[in-house]
Fold these 4 entries.
Entry 1:
Amino acid sequence: MTSLESLFITILAILVLITFWWVIFAFSVAVFQFLFSGWDADKIKKAWNSIRFAILGAIITMLILFMVPALAKYTKVEWYQEYSYTNIFKRATDLVSWFSRLLDIGSEVNDPSQSVGSFEL
């Protein structure tokens, strides 16, 4: 796989991660809007619309994510096998791991000297 294919998969993975966090944030804001609406009809309507748009954004992103490999195969793009959703999710996982190491998040869990219950057979 060339660097261009790797870059394209990385961009798709970043879009998946951004969309995931955007949906979580938008859904949380909508729930708070709904809970603190004071039963005002306009605020409730705004909260429901926010929930609908968050769900719609997630659905559209997933459709695009699953359509990219199909379009790459249909148009006979070189290395189309690499544009699978599993490779994109693997790259997203790698990016999250890299970012957590960058911020030193979860270093206690990843430190083998502090592992609990490790044993040898």
Entry 2:
Amino acid sequence: MQEDNIQAQDLLPPDLLADIDQRGLQFIRATETDDFVNLADDVSVPSWPEFMMHDEVANSNWAIMIETLGDFQFALLEKKSQRWVAVGNSIPIHWTRPLENLPDTGWDWALLSGVTATHPPNLLCAIAIQILPEMRGQGLSRLMIQIMKALGGKAGFSQLVAPIRPNKKTDYPLLEMETYLGWQKGGEPFDPWIRVHQRLGARFLKVCPDAMLIKGSVKEWESWTGLSFKSSGPYVVPGALCPVKIDIEIDSGVYVEPNVWFVHDIQTKRPK
């Protein structure tokens, strides 16, 4: 554990602290526990379909991010039970070109470039917000974004970019992302996760069509999904935003996930 004497009240504004307290929750950062990765898995594992745990970029760099950039990794715990209910991950990155030109490789690029950065970062990038399934629908996702923005502002970043994974897109995996983004519900975006971001002031930048790359053998994909793949072709699998491409001849399954770049403006509060 890194030595860290900064208290929550020094990092988060009073309204956020009050919201967290009223919910009976406690805010911590990775710098405040020796076992953040393993404890966070109690939230992460039930939050994602199994195949999402096999992104090579994530598996090679996740622990490094937690260890070296712990100030930007945080969680909410129930005060009484100390059960972990939500985890947030973000990473400082360096980008000087227009935000509309952010890489098509979105999520994978952000994690890798943040961990291997050679230039001072000038943006904070959201990597993940994970909430226990039984705790969803209670406004925690909005709270987690606000916390992430507050941490970024405290560190001196004026913008938070996010390669958003539209969560309802899993119901429409054959639909092009651009078409899906045009869907409306009551004058707002159809997708619930995009609605949360936009209600907090986020602006659409672009689709990042190659945000995550997950590869495996046919047998691995069968174990990850519970399905059988007996011939080559595209397959719809539970939890995916688009089809997985199976090639029996070369014993390969490839999933290239599209995400959507958004940006939040945040108030900068540089450390004194």
Entry 3:
Amino acid sequence: MTVSPIFAYAQARIQARYGALPTEEDWQRLAGARTLGLFLEEAREGALRDWVKGFSASSDAHDLDRGLRVIWTESVDQVTQWMPKPWRGSVAWLRWLPLLPILAHAAGGGPLPEWADRDPILRTWRGADGTLDPAALSAAGAGALLVPPPELAQAWRAQWRRLWPACGRRLASSLQHLEAMAARHMAAFRSAGGDAAWPLRRELRERLRLDFHRRPLEPTVAFIFLALVVLDLERLRAAIMQRALFSSQEPV
């Protein structure tokens, strides 16, 4: 099979970015850094350097979370720009994923937290009374997420499916396979104990990695790549939050 010329541009860039993702050896090299400052210093010399460049040893938990959301949004936006026009809407829709928990909280009518004013997206959604402004959410293109909290994840998935371009049975099956894989992982993750959380993520990452190599000529590879980015950002978040919250910034 040959890659479609319309997708060749995106494929080449996604493949290059995939090759630059951190490896297990990169993570192991950083495991011994006891403080946030040491971790960031070491990380700036490897595959994580672009992701940690905006952080410092004095970054608090909100700074770290906000920075990680920005990295995710920039990653999604970049892949969106690479993709052929029919696929851009469904890829761009991924940018809202990290905000689902805060939207679920705000849907109950409570105010957005004060730290939302420090977030480049959330501060535009905060109304004068501090609550979520539905008009601002709709103007940003996320109006489909104005639903009660129990329906939020389902609403996100339904809108993602609606944004799929018309495609053949084989490609639709590939997208459905990816969606089912993610759903199985989330179901297992919710019911698993703490000790099983990271093994489940490693298992999912390996499945995604194999699919990435099996489907290099399909637009589906964009979603697989971004799913791998999510898992790596989750791992980075765990590493830096643990050091920011529970370790001294001064070497012992």
Entry 4:
Amino acid sequence: MTRTALFDAIRPFAPDKRFTPDHVAAIDALADAFGMGRVGNGNALSKAVALIREFEGCKLTAYPDPGSGGDPWTIGWGATGAGISKGVVWTQAQADARLLMDVATFANAVTKLVGDALTTDNQSAAMTSLAYNVGVANFGSSTLLRKHKAGDYAGAAAEFARWNKASGKVMAGLTRRRAAEAALYQVKA
């Protein structure tokens, strides 16, 4: 994802669909904080967004969690939380903007949990995708994170496969997603 795409996704939420200089500075600061280059798209945040988009899919009408058949209600690219309930409908622009904001939040949480452990963009993107799906608390207490911080990258990569269940049941989609995350985690770049 480029900065232009980020600005385009957020623009519908700006007053009169126009950014003030303060808006531009805030969005640029957020993009800078997460390593979103001013040119190109080879950074951790854009890779995490792409991976999440591939596996979450996008639905513009709220639906019950597929794993539990109920809570939490979900919309867009897997968004949950306050204001998301039965009957809620979003536009594509709302779904895209929420994804960018949520992924930035999860990436920040992953960065804090990883601390000063050596981490590549690909590792960060893979762990952000996992945290987006399983939650920051679960990721924070995971063996995967512990192994990553200890420098056991092969061991950490193997841990992705353990996160393929919903309500105790193995899910084919989660198995594919974890394999993709583990593959990205292991890419040396």
